[in-house]
Amino acid sequence: MRRFNAGVITLLIIAAYFIATAFIPDLYLAFNYKLILALLFVLLSWQSKGKFLFFLGIAFLSTYIHDLFRLDYSEWTLFVGILILGIAVDRLSKPSYKKNFSYKVSKEHEREIFAKTLFSESVQVVTSQNLETVYANADFGRLTLDLRQAQFMTDRPQIVVQANFSQVIIRVPKDWQVDTHGLHTSLAGVKSYDSLGERELSSTTVALTGSVSFGQVTVKH
After folding, report:
1. Do 126 and 162 sit in the same domain of this protein?
2. Same domain for 189 and 158?
3. Distance between alpha carbon 99 and the CA centroid of its chain, in Å?
4. Are residues 38 and 119 located together in one domain of the fold?
5. Among 212, 203, 200, which Cα is nearest to 170's?
6. Does residue 154 sit in the same domain as residue 54?
C-alpha cells in the first residue's frame, strides 16, 4: 500500500508542477522537465527495486545539471553512456529481475490477444484456435509470446508489437510464414528471424507490424 501511495503522490506532484508552469513560466527555467523525469525514475526505482530505472533517472539528472551550470561536456553522449551502464548493471542483478517473472496460458477462443510486460519478464502461451490479431507490448522488460499451439482464422492475420527498451521473442509453428517488413525499427531497435532452414510451409502468412526502439524482436520457429 505504501508503494502505491508513493507512486500516486509522485504523479500528483508532477501534475501540479506542469499545471503551475502554465501560469508561472519561471518555474520551468529553474525546475524543468529533465529534473522532474530524473526524480520520477529514481522514485520508481526505489519502489520497484529496478536498477535500470535508477540509472535512467541519473541520466536525466546529468542533462539537467549540464543545462543548469552550462558545463562543457556532451550531455546526450553521457546520457547514452549512463543508460547502457544501467542496462549492464540490471542484467547482472538477475535475482531481483526474476522476482517479477510471470507465466500465463491463454486458453480462450478469443480473436484478439493482448500480451504485455512492464519492468518485468513474462511468458504468455496462446492456444486460441480463432485468432485474428495478437498485440504484444513490452516496456523495460522481456516478453516471450508462444503461438505454437495457436491458429489464425482470418485472411489477414497479424502480430502487432510495441517494444521499448525490451526484448520480445515470438515462437511460431514451423510451417508459418512471418512477414517482418511491417515492423519498424528506430533508435537502436533490432529485428531478427531465427529459422530452422528448409521446412514445409503452410498457407498461413502472418504480418508482423509495429515498432521497436532500444530493443530486439526475434521470431523463432
Report:
1. yes
2. yes
3. 18
4. no
5. 212
6. no
- Per the CB < 8 A criterion, the answer to whether 161 and 168 are in contact is yes
Final residue belonging to a domain, choices 96, 124, 152: 96
Task: Answer with the one of 96, 112, 130 that is the final residue of a domain.
Answer: 96
Exposure letters 23-35 (e unless 16+ CB within 10 A, then b): eeeeeeeebbebb
Question: Are residue 122 and residue 84 in the same domain, yes or no?
Answer: no
Of 128, 220, 207, 216, the closest CA to residue 173 belongs to: 220
Query: 135: closest CA among 154, 110, 153?
Result: 110
Q: Report how far residue 94's alpha carbon sits from residue 211's, in angstroms, rounded to the nearest whole number.
A: 27
Instruction: Find the domain containing 23 and state its range.
Output: 2-96
How far is it between the farthest Cα atoms of the chain?
Answer: 66
Residues 167 and 215: their CA atoms lie apart, in Å, by 5
- Asked if 9 and 16 touch (Cβ cutoff 8 Å), the reply is no
Residue with cell 522481456: 142
pLDDT at 158: 93
Partner residues linked to 162 by β-bridges: 137, 211
Give me the phi and psi of 89, to 5 degrees please: -65, -40
Report the alpha-carbon distance of residue 211 to residue 156 in Å, rounded.
Answer: 19
For residue 136 the three cell numbers come to 504484444
**156 and 213 co-located in one domain:** yes
Number of domains the chain contains: 2
10-residue mean pLDDT series, the chain (221 residues): 54 77 71 78 71 87 86 88 86 56 66 86 89 90 90 90 88 88 74 58 82 85 83
